[in-house]
Design goal:
Structural class: alpha+beta
Oligomer: single chain
Largest sheet: 6 strands, antiparallel
Helix content: 10-25%
Length: 294
Amino acid sequence: MIASAVFVGHAATSLPRSTPEAQGVSSSALLEWVQALDRQIEGMHSVMIVRHERVIAEGWWAPYAAEHRHVLYSLSKSFTSTAVGQYCVVMPDQDAVIAITSGIRDMQAVLNLIWDQFLPACGPRKLRSDPAALTGLRESLAQLEVTSAPGASTSDWAPKAMNRRFVFPENPQKIDSLRIGVAEPGKGVCLLLHSEGREMRLPAGHRQWLKGRAPLTGGSLSQFPDEPVASTFGWTAPDTLEIKVCAYETPFHTIWRLKFEGDQVTLDREANVSFGPRKQPTLIGRTGAGDSRR
């Protein structure tokens, strides 16, 4: 199979909107389905439901948003299969289409929820309006969010880790050094990376997505030199900082896991999905003599 990448965003002419009940679908049933997606599927990015040529529900998991484009791999194949979690499910008997963007590995799980919960909710005729259920559905759709990095906002190691420069030996990932700084007063941390003579800044908030830009390397089909990202952080142990970086115009998230011990840091990186290995080899960086606070 040959995969191609295209970017999708707003259509020039917006599709007409309607309430679910006017198209024979219960808002309460849709709410249960959306909540099941949010609860059971890690890596949902957006969903749009069309019935009788009208959009009856749509939502984005922050930091993904309607105004951002999203790279979609092998769109032509997504009508009958999936590529790293991108779906266009056409149901002629129900006169319905569901479009989903995500970054997941268990792609059948999403389809199971469509068959088990969405299909039974499609009735043959218009339903009585249900303003309370419709309000609940719209509120839930507006509050969707990608799961942030776990952990606490600080730790005993946090003051010792700040502003220390850790240097790595030559490595295929081309990471020369890193240090942890402050994003903005009271707004979290900033991962500063040096690679091939270039400094990259990844601000991250605690349970708050802070935006920046960084290269994205996830295999031969997912190389982006300067990608908009949003990040969160948490201390998952007294000596371990985890930063979750979401490239919100792509399917890809990356976990940066830094474990501090004495004058060294152990760095592990893992992607949610990838066309190559999801886990990068472990790197160990050390502070040099007289170099710990540069």
